[in-house]
Amino acid sequence: MVAEIVTGFGALKSAYEIAKGLKDINDQVRLNNAVIELQSQILTAQAAVAEAKDRMQEMQKVIDEFDNWSEVSRRYQLK
């Protein structure tokens, strides 16, 4: 999960740097290429966030199973 967050943060940082540079571009081809790169970085960040969210949901399921086991284990006694 940490890796996904770091990836997302890196992509957002790159997107920010690209967006800052857009204001200085006068050539339309270079501008279009920069916009495409910006969109790519944004999509990378969105994918990383989605992966982190999925991983968090998986981890929550594991926690819920442990909580459920605590309830089940109360019904039994070691001899």
Keywords:
79 residues, mainly alpha, 85% helix, rod-shaped
Could you characterize the architecture of this molecule?
The radius of gyration is 22 Å and the shape is rod-shaped. The protein is 85% helix and 0% strand. It has helices spanning 2-22, 28-73. 4% of the residues are buried. By secondary structure, the chain is mostly helical. The chain is built from 2 helices and no strands. α1 (2-22) packs antiparallel against α2 (28-73).
N-to-C order of helices and strands? HH
* Count of DSSP-assigned helices: 2
What is the CA-based Rg, rounded? 22 Å
Find the count of extended strands (DSSP E, 2+ residues). 0
> Can you tell me the residue ranges where pLDDT is under 50 for at least 5 consecutive residues?
none
Nearest-integer average pLDDT:
83
Based on helices, strands and strand pairing, what is the structural class? mainly alpha
Q: Report on the biggest sheet.
A: none
Helical coverage, percent range:
over 70%
Percent of sequence in beta strands: under 5%
Overall shape: it is rod-shaped
- Distance, first to last CA: 41 Å
